[in-house]
Amino acid sequence: MTNDTGMMHIASAFNLPIVSLWGQTTPKFGMSPYKPNELSLIVEPNPLKRTLSKLGNKKTSRHVMLTIDVEIIARQLDNIIKE
Known about the structure:
This protein is α+β, with helices and mostly antiparallel strands. Helix content is 25%, strand content 7%. It is built from two helices and two strands, in the order αββα. It is flat. The model has no long low-confidence stretch (mean pLDDT 85).
């Protein structure tokens, strides 16, 4: 896990599964993994709770990440570990 997309892109280059959490920005702005592994998961918070910006530099609630459903993440991590 990383706070920047750099390591996500490296993992993608090695075809590793990625669980990518997005806060104030979105992969739709062009920073998503190039070729995500079939087990990869991109998770975004509730769109009504955040202010989007390409670089994540617009203010939004500091609790925006709390709107992400941790059960989805846990299930996917379990799938990755089983593989």
